[in-house]
Input
Amino acid sequence: MKHIISPTDLTVSELRELLDLAEEIIRDPKKYSNICHGKKLATLFYEPSTRTRLSFEAAMLNLGGNVLGFSSADSSSAAKGESVADTIRVISHYADICAMRHPKEGAPLVASLYSSIPIINAGDGGHNHPTQTFTDLLTIKNLKGRLDCLTVGFCGDLKFGRTVHSLIGALSRYKNIKFVLISPEELMLPAYIREEVIEGNHIPYEEVRILEDVMPDLDILYMTRVQRERFFNEEDYIRLKDTYILDMKKMALAKPDMLVLHPLPRVNEIATEVDSDPRAVYFKQAQFGVYIRMALIMKLLEVV
Ligand code: CP
Output
């Protein structure tokens, strides 16, 4: 049995198979419409979510399976003090596979140690968000045609943004990748990721403050929200939240085929005027999230 706690829990070859399956689903979704009949997905969400929880649920329903779960810690027995370990021991008897989001880093890993069903990390604190990364990779592969030879800019909250941490880890395994890290000083990428993942894999990178300076160089611009819920101090959040706002003036500096991704939700960091630019693919990206989760559920349940 396999759990997905980090994006690199799949080898590059397994990831290629997953992406190929997702693209097959895009071409012929009806082919898989009953493949998970009789199977149940539990969504245990201890933290708010729109896309991840509902796309997991849509994915399982699209496969002919069923879903059960909770959407906040308050509506589960976590509010009475039940541990993640005890919860998953019980849920293992109720479902065949589980997607878990938790504000504490490592909670899905703990769950995997006590589970008799596959656990998928649906986001753990400021740590990892592997299925968002698989979504991002599918978006890039499908719309750009490749996952190598790319200059990828990450802009905004690189300190707390778990989607950034996960995508950097995943892209570091491809050839001729360059990272451009665009953030204020206070929200720079954590040193352990820079040193272990980027420098450890000899990936060229630069750290900059001004988005406009690097716009012409980028093949992908990955915008992120400043993660209010991870700040200890509201004043710091207010001071930093509007550091970067992508608008059409900045888009005019970019390559004609640059793609703008964002894991969403968006707050202020992308002006709504950008939405109609064909390079803005964040809503398409959210749609791809359903297909990649369908592929992942099928792989983990070994029904394909
Ligand atoms: N991208 C993402 O994780 O969105 P949600 O928080 O809405 O699930």
About this structure: Strands lie at 40-45, 66-70, 97-102, 119-124, 150-155, 177-182, 205-208, 220-223, 259-261.
